[in-house]
Structure formats: structure tokens, C-alpha cells
């Protein structure tokens, strides 16, 4: 049977919901069936995410949701928490049912486990609220596929908002010698402080640190860990929030852009720049099938290299500092900051 994709240029495929699991009053997990013809494209690493494309109220929307399953489980599962202003998260929580079909792009993301060596380091994770989703995937993978010791600090407003409460308890019981879970409840102890982070980190040895959750929580954890001497290369962050694109290029940019040169698949196009557009939007306006997926600066699918001129990124959770220094940008979040920009999709 031939592969049937909703959009061959972008790679979205139809995935049917096999099962809906109500995790809390405002969070659900969706177990997804991948068509056999697409199975090789939906193999994933623990900690990665899917980009869903859904139509809600006549609008075509894209959102990224992390896998909470691990590859060793032979199952693809995402977990979605309701966001008070989230059109798609509310739609999924309110209407998703077994048998429904969603359209998803293949897994992306770099929030993954480091390569194991002869003496694998401890895995130390800090999760806040729904930030437990990719962390749960990492924890499951580390426990099932390695001998690593795992320590998890999990913060929530209260006990009713703990996602995966029972699965975590079962894992802690099954792996009592390797998994430690410390719960923090704001309703009891207030918001997480740097001292709480430092206290938890002080009890670990040689480790890799993974952090995911709301921005204030992540900022507190990151600052505390770096202050405690954790090497930056051992600290892995997964952020869910993205800066909104401005309507126009700001006065802080070097100068208004006039021209963008785009090289893609042996095509070279010169386009007049429309103020406020990202480089990805500029490419699309020229009819180019530029690669893209999440459109939040998280997956790196749309990355291109700037060989002339400059641009700033509104959000970048995909590229390493050395890649940025070499001129790479995620074009979905990149705004020109020079009169001319020449970029190449490689």
C-alpha cells in the first residue's frame, strides 16, 4: 500500500487515536496508532515531541506535544495539559476520543538522553507541572534501557495536579534501588526556591541534568544549578513558551531589510522583504516549499545558514551556540537585521 500523507511536502501523516487516558482533571494522554506505511518515519527517541496540525473553528493550527512514552514500550503516547488560553489543548482535552484522527509530523527534538558510556552518569530531572511529560519519557527509557540511577524533583501546585502520580509510584516501587522521586507542592511549601534546588542537587554525584516546566520554575532551577557548579554542557533545558513575533521590525534591529536571497533545492530566489515577516514566511511567499514542522523554534526542521547579512531569532530551542555562531538560524523565528540577507537551506 502506498504511503498516504496529508501533505507530502511537510510530511504530516494521519494517526488514529487508539486510547484516551484521563491523567488529571486538566490533562489527557493520547495513545496513537501509526499507519504501517509510516512506521519507520515515526520511530522516536525518549524526550522528543510531535507537531500536530489540527483545524479548530476553521483555523489551521500547529502545536507541539512531547511524548510521555518511551520507545521501549512499543507505543506512541503524547500528554496534553489544558492551557487556560490554549485553543488546541482545550480542544484535545474536551473532544479527543478513541477512533479520531490527528495529523502529525514525525518526531523532532534534542531534549534526549546523552549517549551512554562504560560508566553512565546519573540522570537528575527537575519537572514543573506538565513539564513532566518529556521527563517521564526520559525516566522510563533510562530505567528500561540502562543501569543509570535516576532522581526526579517534581513540582506541582497541589496533589490533584500531579500528572502520572500512579505510574511514577509504580516505577519507584519497581526500581527502588535506582529511582528516587521527590514531590514538591506549592500549596504546602510555596514556589520552588533556589535553596530547594541546591539541596536536591547536593545529594547527587556525576550526573546529567534535565529541566522542563513553566518559565519561572526553569529560570530558578537553571540559575541554581549553574550557581552550584553544574557544567553548562551537562544541563539540558526544554522550554514550552515562545516569544510572539512583532508586527514590524523594531528600532533595535540594525536596519530595515530590503532584500532576501534564498537558496533551496537548486533554486535561487531573490525576494523583496516584507517588514515583520520571518525568513520562513518570506520563503513561502515566493512559493518555495521550505522545510518546517513545529514553527516554534523547537525542532530545527526549518534551519538554514545565513552566508550574508544577519538575523535575530525570537526563540531558539533547537540550535547549539556553536551552530548559531556559524550562521545557522531557525527560519520560523528569524527576523532580518541587515539590509540584505542571503540564506541557504542545506
TrEMBL record:
Keywords: 2Fe-2S, FAD, Flavoprotein, Iron, Iron-sulfur, Metal-binding, Oxidoreductase. InterPro entries: 2Fe-2S_ferredoxin-like_sf, 2Fe-2S_ferredoxin-type, 2Fe2S_fd_BS, Beta-grasp_dom_sf, Cbr1-like_FAD-bd_dom, FAD-bd_FR_type, Flavoprot_Pyr_Nucl_cyt_Rdtase, FNR_nucleotide-bd. Residues 258-346 form the 2Fe-2S ferredoxin-type domain. The keyword Iron applies. It comes from the Bacteria. Residues 10-114 form the FAD-binding FR-type domain. Its cofactor is FAD. GO terms for molecular function: 2 iron, 2 sulfur cluster binding; flavin adenine dinucleotide binding; metal ion binding; oxidoreductase activity. CDD domains: fer2, PA_degradation_oxidoreductase_like. This is Ferredoxin. It comes from Mycolicibacterium vanbaalenii (strain DSM 7251 / JCM 13017 / BCRC 16820 / KCTC 9966 / NRRL B-24157 / PYR-1).
